[in-house]
Amino acid sequence: MAVSTVKKVSVSLKLENGRDAKGMMTYVSNSLGSLNKDNFDGDKVLAIVELLEPCLSKDIGSIEKTETSTITAA
């Protein structure tokens, strides 16, 4: 049986960066950096993003969480 162990958690904001020639929205990424994997709390991330939003020059398109894990045999 395989065991997956989370090693790192990071969050980035996808900010709207205008439209391309075909009219599709383009995005730029703004990382909030690595967060404590043991104490990660999505509600706290949303609270931080809410406080940051007025300071950003672009609208937030989405918030993405990335987990890096290792997989080993049990």
Outline the structure in words:
The protein is mostly beta strands and 74 residues long. The protein is built from one helix and three strands. It starts with a strand and ends with a strand.
Unreliable spans are none
User: What structural category do the secondary elements indicate?
Assistant: mainly beta
In one word, what is the shape?
flat
Arrangement of strands in the largest sheet: 2-1-3
- Mean pLDDT, to the nearest integer, reads 95
Secondary structure tally, helices: 1
Strand fraction equals over 45%
What composes the largest sheet? Answer: 3 strands, antiparallel
Cα-based radius of gyration, to the nearest Å: 16 Å
Work out the helicity level: 10-25%
Series of secondary-structure elements, N-terminal to C-terminal:
EEHE
Number of strands: 3
**End-to-end distance, in Å?**
6 Å
Write the layout of secondary structure elements.
Layout lengths: L1 E18 L5 E11 L6 H11 L7 E14 L1
Antiparallel strand pairs: 1-2, 1-3
Please sum up the structure shown.
With 74 residues, this protein is mainly beta. It contains 1 helix and 3 strands. The radius of gyration is 16 Å and the shape is flat.
List its traits.
74 residues; 3-stranded antiparallel sheet; mainly beta; 15% helix
